[in-house]
Amino acid sequence: MAIPAYRRPWLLFALLTTGLWGVWGAFAGAPAENGFPETLIYVVWAFTMIPPALYALWRVDWNWPWDRRSLIYGAAVGLLGAGGQMVLFHAVRIGPTYLIFPVIALSPLVTIVLSAAILRERVTWIGGLGILCALVALPLFDFSPGGAGAGQGLAWFVLALLVLVAWGVQGFFMKYAAPVMSAEAIFAYMALTGLLLAPVALAMTDFSQPINYGWSGPGLAAATQILNSIGALTLVYAFRHGRAIVVSPLANAGAPLITALISLAALGLVPALPKLVGIGLAFAAAALLTIEPEDQA
Fold it and tell me: So where does this one cross the membrane (predicted)?
């Protein structure tokens, strides 16, 4: 008999992540469209990580472990996430985004393989079918026929693969570090490493170009990126309480689902056929992963 959702904290946190990231995804591109560079959006994101990090540390009485193992795990989670974002900035500059993002969307596959091989996580046929639906759905959300050319040779493809691996391994380390570190400490390290890479983002910014410093630029970036940051915190909690092999595809398929629905309902956009198929598969994945029996953990 399946355990009700309200008694499975990993599911509640995963669904919070999908909701927050779904809304964030629908409006995240607006600041850049308004003339605020993506590299500066990264800096804004890094600073929006501070409030949820302070809240998380407050919950554990400011217990932030600094032993060698915690430093290694915390740095691994933080640098893989923030470093992947930095590589993505360069990738989208030299290559076609309509090909880059479908590649990156497969990052849960890395998390699943590592979790199954190292952590020996397993799922029933219900969860397995949900994972399959999620992995098939992910690339469809970013499929856009036509558009830019192939970019600078295969450089963009190599960079996209690096982001895919970085974010996939990050998801694994979130779970791998859970037995020895609190979720709050893991997130604090994520916030710290994000801030440490902010000067790199500033160095990548072309300040010779006009930059929108108004509310529609950094102000809107802060309003959207705080959703990203809080979603990252709830994702860490989801990995803490649940199986990475289930949490990763659920969050990564559910968020584009919410984004697509918001775009359709609120922004007046009609998704192309591949995205409509992706919406259906993501809904099926979320439903299957929700009813996955808990006793397989």
Answer: 39-58, 70-92, 98-116, 123-141, 153-174, 186-205, 217-239, 246-266
Largest CA distance in the chain: 62
Checking if the pLDDT of 80 tops 80, the result is: yes
**Segment 122-155, tens digit of pLDDT:** 777 787 887 788 778 777 766 555 444 444 557 8
Q: Identity (one letter) of the amino acid at 38?
A: E
Read off the tokens for 232. 């990252």
Cβ neighbors of 12 (< 8 A, separation 6 or more) are 5, 6
Q: Measuring CA to CA, how many Å separate 198 from each of 8, 41, 79, 142?
A: 36, 10, 12, 27
Nearest residue to 30 via CA among 216, 264, 231: 216
Token reading at 216: 């529609």
Q: What is the pLDDT of residues 47-74, one digit of tens each?
A: 999 999 999 999 999 988 888 888 899 9
Specify the length of the chain in residues. Answer: 297
DSSP class of residue 179 equals T
